[in-house]
Amino acid sequence: MDKEKRKVEKERIILGIDPGTTIMGFGIIRIDGKIMSLVEHGVIRMTKEKDHYMKLQKIFYGVRDLIDQHHPDELAIEAPFFGKNVQSMLKLGRAQGVAMAAALDREMAVTEYSPRKIKQSITGSGSASKEQVAAMIKSLLKLDELPKDLDATDGLAAAVCHFFQSGVSSEKSGYSGWAAFAAKNSDRVT
To answer: Quick check: is 107 in a domain?
Structure first.
């Protein structure tokens, strides 16, 4: 279904990305009104690539291929966090920038969220562990099992965070964030 038809039907697709230079996690969700459903999740591995620039190229083409296959309306991406290793942060920022460039190349809206904001939105705690985020994603999307790689779960978390933070999930539709969603969907949250 193309983007224009989805807009008329109030349906949209969100691509969430957890950038990385070795493993990049992604998650794609479909929003139909107030209902989220899983489209796809996974990782793009760059472990065989030794050259940093070739890794960036693989990220660009991988994100662009996901966009061309699923036609998402928006990209939600985790921002690099400020750590002690400046070189690692710079590499992560490049990976994020390349993923954003792929989305912008396909004329998609891009929104960036801090890791803390994503965790807060999904679990209610900005200091939640990857495992806690994964467990909530499993519950929210009614997954039978967790993805094998937590980077994929982190990509899904970025997409779900965007849904919770965006206009469709705002006061207009009754969700101002995780607490509002949980209160109105107690049967869906375990």
So the answer is: yes
